[in-house]
Here is the input.
Amino acid sequence: MESRSINQKAVPTSYVRYIDWVSVGIYLLLIVAGVFSVYAASYDFDNASILDFNEFSGKQVRWIFLALGLALMIMLIDRRMYETYAYPIYLAMLAIMIVTIFVAPDIKGSRSWLVFGPISFQPAEFGKFATALALAKLFSGYQFRLNDSHTNYLRALAIIFIPVALILAQRETGSALAYLALFFVLYREGMSGLVLLAAAGAVIIFVVAVKYAEPVFMGMPLGEAVVIMLLGLLLIGMLAVYCRQIAAARNVTLFFAGAALVAWIFHLFGLDIPGRYYLLSLLAAACIYSLLLCLRGESKPLLVSVGAVVAGVIFLYSVNYAFTSVLQPHHQQRIKVTLGLEEDRLGAGYNVNQSKIAIGSGGLTGKGFLNGTQTKLKYVPEQHTDFIYCTIGEEEGFIGSTAVLLLFLALILRILHIAERQPTVFGRVYAYCVASYFIFHLAVNVGMVIGLCPVIGIPLPFFSYGGSSLWSFTILLFILLRIDASRREHLTY
Amino acid sequence: MRKDYRLERRKYVVVGFIVLIVAIYIIRLFSLQVMDDRYKDYADSNAFLKKAIYPSRGIIYDRQGRVVVYNQPAYDVMMIPRDVQPFDTVDFCNTLGLTREQFTRRLADMKDRRLNPGYSSYSPQVFMTHLSAEDYGRLQEKMYRYPGFFIQKRILREYGYKAAANVLGNIREVSQADIDADPYYSSGDYTGDLGVEKSYERYLRGEKGVEILIRDAKGQIQGKFENGARDRGAISGRNLKLSIDIELQQYAESLMVNKIGAVVAIEPATGEILAMVSSPTYDPSLLVGRKRGANYKVLVNDFYKPLFDRALMGAYPPGSTFKPANGLILLQEGIIVPSTAYPCYHGFVSGGLKVGCHGHGSPLPLKPALQTSCNAYFCYGFKAMVDRRSKYGSSADAFEIWKKHLVSLGYGYRLGTDLPGESRGFIPNAKFYNKIYGENRWSANTIISVAIGQGEILATPLQIANLCATIANRGWFITPHVVKEIEDTVIPSDLTERRYPTIDASHFMDVAEGMRMAVTGGTCRLAALPDVEVAGKTGTAQNPHGKDHSAFIGFAPYENPKIAVCAYVENAGFGATYGVPIGSLVMEKYLTGKIAEQRKYLEQRMLESNTIIYSGVKKH
Here is the structure.
């Protein structure tokens, strides 16, 4: 056994047969499609060559060759190096990010670019793989379990939030938000699903409360009434599923139904109940009833349920404050545009409106490569970077843009598949980090371009012009592939 | 390594999440790209600036080839609101001679969707119309300073004669309704309003060309789309040659000055209208350019309604000019033969009923009855027909046949002339009387006044003139029309084909002879011309508005007629007083080119007389 192991090390090509060529294939498809998109997005009437180094596409080709070299290098390094040097790499990146805050020039309000002569790069991008390595390293510690102690949580959160804080200090909100995707990893490693539900709930409450602030229902904003009713449903659902108190859930349901009937009868007789007090006191009554159930046995799930509802109510009434006081005006504007509350076609809504026009005008099969008028005539700002997806939508149509989405979906599913076949916690956690970054970038970037998300300036991996993003995702992916290629070594001890 | 299978299942939550997101996005893409066509238009209106190239409108000539309507260029200042960038408004206003307030108000009006329903910040909007050549010159030099503004050359009309406004019509800016009805038009275009400008709009307007320019996000023009391969040149409008003789028209209009009414002259052999006067009329050039709006308001509100074309929209009782038509029907139905004589003791007396008549011999056969315009003759004849139950079964059935003949003579329905707004006049049917009197509760006596063109009968001067042309042709007519030729096109066949009434040609000979006798020795002796044989019939139509209407129909020469005319003057008294002189002067002028010395006094009288002040209708 020993000799075989040594023998394997002596022949570094032995793991080559375990390289996941499916991922490599998808990667190559994506970067090639990416170059053509950048070429199309920056195409001018001068018919420049796709390889012209003065053009964006030419530069992108250069970045790609460098990225491929980088990928090769990564594949040649022993997998244990990544595990061993995870923390040093992480700390080094943090150091670079701190330096960046102070030395980076102001580019469009953000201080996130390090400039070396003609080359500039964004440390926030390279922080991604470093943070992933560090998180994987933390979880791979002996007998480390996330739920074993609060300290473990704090460590994990610290690894995530230190770079987030540094990037926010560079005023690069979009990139900072991308790190929050790592909560998927925490979830996979044991964090309660309630956290994700709470996050989803917060988004729903926010959207409903802000979007439907206008029509009045029972003397209160419709959105507010709907949120209170949803919280009532949440309580019923949690009582039934989470607390397994079917009887209690039924009682609360009947109570609410009766209360609705009373309100309706009052309404028939022309008596309008003050909606806010009525709904809130009903909810409060249901919560008190649930708390009383604590006396009869296991209390924790009940406390969590009531706590969730109370938190929801508090969140509901702080949304307005948060929206107007915490968010900056241009963020408020972007959110209002996304929710369809404001149509600001020349201001905040301009990008999204033009990008929707570009995509929508593509039709089923698109206008054909280089035939996009929105693109050629530069109606969509940032179209070779953050809004590159609309070039695909315009020129390649529904078929092309769906194909790109499906290609990304295939890559993400493949990474998740790879993650679950890892023999080590390190490999698995790292793989989940990679998948999380891809999920976030895909969801947010495409969502923003098609008008389903507020505008958050993050690139579409492998498509958006720029070396930093390309390299960052190449490094992320190929470290994973390198780790994955060695997955058999553990079995041959 | 530890495996926690409960946690491993969480993979599916993550997988489910991303699959859900991608599915939502694909649905969204489908709705944006496949279900919704609007974005294609938005993208096109972004990228392509379609500049219209306006064709010149067709020129209108009269039958002698004289230029009646031609074009003058005008310049509109247009703007595409979303392309406008900050500019020196003070300089802009000075160049255009606007005050700051006018400038702001103009912008506000343009954006007000109630005033300008077609407003869109993406499409060209009219900022200011009809620059003078001088302003145009000054503005053109500075145009580059005002991105988003451009100058659109347009065509305005210029008139060679101050005549025939009712025939020619005019052009106006299209309304939103026009744009909705015909996608050819866009905001700021012109279309015909009234007259041939309206009815021949399709020929006159030509076809707009288009120049497709590529425009980038900054509004800068990047060049021509596909190097102009998709551009289309404008096709000029077709010229029209009217059948109107513009000098005859002018002359007839001068005779009708200070009178209310209409004159229609038709060339019987072709149905071509030689002159068509509606009085009072107006100078067509009042409705051109920037002063159009104000003048239009004045004309619309004028008490005498000059915009109302009496020649073809006015429905009048034809009075005695109707007697030839009645005579034709009686002959055709065999109720009378030319020698049939009816008595007239100062009128028609039947039951307790009396229709008065004037002094002449009695009894009279048909031709002398026409000559003297005997009321009694046509009443007896009408009664003989309508009450002849042995032949027709009932008065109602007899009346229906009588009516059917009238319709075939062009009464009661639109003739189908090539001008818009024609009235159909009114010929009652049996049902109409059944409603008033009850079924079988009426007979000839009940409705006897229709026998002499009174009562319910109404006809337009055009229909009356057409009847005259039919008699002149001895038994057929061609739908009267004002356009003789359309450049490079034939005029529609329904304006060139003969139409035959249900009455035999031989009967027309008798009626024509009666009308000839009326000129040689009857009611319209004043219509006699020195070297031309004229036939005619006067009409004096009672009406509820005051003095009788004075009417005349006539044609000449008697053999091989060249002109048939109807003159109808409202509230002017006997047919012989105004109708006959005006009608015969028009014929004389057309046939001989001058007015004979012995008739100059008539011309003078007509030019100078004013019936408006005697009409009993006061201007309020």
The first strand of chain B starts at residue 48 and ends at 53. Chain B touches chain A at residues 1, 4, 7-8, 10-11, 13-15, 17-19, 21-22, 24-26, 28-30, 32-34, 36, 38-40, 42-44, 46-48, 82, 214-218, 222-223 (CB under 8 Å). Residues 53 and 122 of chain B are 19 Å apart (CA to CA). Chain B has a mean pLDDT of 89.
